[in-house]
Design brief:
Layout lengths: L7 E6 L7 H4 L8 E5 L9 H7 L4 E5 H9 L4 E9 L7 E4 L14 E3 L6 H14 L7 E4 L14 E3 L6 H6 L5 E3 L10 E3 L4 H12 L6 E6 H6 L1 H16 L15 H17 L15 H4 L4
Parallel strand pairs: 1-2, 1-3, 6-7, 6-9, 7-8
Antiparallel strand pairs: 3-11, 4-11, 5-9, 5-10
Helix pairs in contact: 4-9
């Protein structure tokens, strides 16, 4: 797999998740690869380096960022390995102390999102548009960061928050009417979901669409896949085995899926959502996202 008897060192960006723990702790390993894990936490802080500078041989990457990177010819290839996935319905919230906000109330309102191109925000906008008839262009999207891919520019419906502003504070003081919030902020008791019964709505969405929302997937440098396909296959195996160490069998709502066919419907949806939201200039076919090596990887 490598050019000599020594293992190949791969500069790697990979977050600390239950499904990556066995790999990062060395419980799942390969004699052919040594991973040089970047100390970047959270991993999304390294995404600009992935797409702008090709700093990593292997990385996790938000799927919308990958679609944009491919649109602008970045030399990366997708592996059919989901690293992060979640149901986005509960993450769009409002401040209950200021009165209820439902999807039908969002026209003319201001909604905070970390960046317009964030994958979670893309899923949420697609759900609002397709399932609740929301006109996305009638919402002012208040952002705090630019896209990971430098060539992409936000639409006119996006507005950058003033320097130093924090999204949660803006939500609680009424500067935005709703926001896409995650992590510890979601535990604030004042925050309530815009989508009623979000867990039930998410499961119904999954059954109806035959899909699970993808957030981050694995990517590799295109040059690595071309020059050393066996190493890329080994990376895929290690990611799969690390996931199976904590979740040996997939279930109906398991977002951490491996292999192209297992992810095809989810990828079709995020491609469609991204194109309709003008995040990418055209729809890709799912098979275009992979090369001959990664398209054939077996989950």
């Amino acid at each position: 797999m490598s050019t000599d008897s020594q293992p190949l060192t791969l500069r790697t960006l990979l977050g600390d998740y239950p499904n990556t723990l066995a790999l990062k702790q060395g419980k799942v390993r390969s004699p052919h690869i040594t991973f040089d894990f970047a100390d970047v936490k959270p991993a999304n802080l390294g995404f600009k380096d992935v797409v702008r500078h090709q700093k990593f041989d292997v990385a996790e990457l938000a799927i919308v960022t990958y679609l944009q990177a491919k649109s602008y010819g970045k030399p990366l290839v997708l592996l059919p390995a989901v690293v992060v996935g979640n149901l986005p319905h509960p993450l769009l919230v409002y401040d209950a102390e200021r009165g209820p906000v439902a999807p039908s109330d969002l026209a003319g309102r201001r909604v905070g999102i970390r960046a317009y191109s964030v994958t979670t925000a893309t899923w949420i906008r697609g759900i609002l548009q397709n399932d609740y008839g929301v006109d996305l262009d009638k919402i002012k999207w208040v952002t705090f960061e630019d896209a990971h891919v430098a060539e992409y520019h936000d639409p006119d419906t996006a507005e950058r928050a003033a320097p130093g502003k924090k999204m949660l504070a803006m939500l609680l003081n009424g500067e935005v009417d709703a926001a896409v919030v995650g992590g510890p902020d979601l535990k604030d008791p004042r925050l309530q979901p815009v989508i009623h019964n979000p867990s039930d709505a998410a499961q119904e969405w999954g059954r109806r669409n035959r899909a699970t929302p993808i957030n981050h997937m694995a990517v590799a440098k295109a040059s690595l896949s071309k020059s050393n396909p066996e190493i890329v296959k080994e990376v895929f195996r290690l990611l799969r085995d690390s996931k199976h160490a904590v979740s040996p069998s997939a279930n109906e709502f398991d977002p951490l899926r491996f292999e192209v066919e297992a992810n095809r419907r989810s990828l079709e949806l995020i491609i469609d959502y991204s194109a309709r939201q003008r995040l990418i200039p055209r729809k890709f076919e799912v098979d275009e996202l992979f090369d001959d090596v990664t398209r054939a990887l077996d989950g």
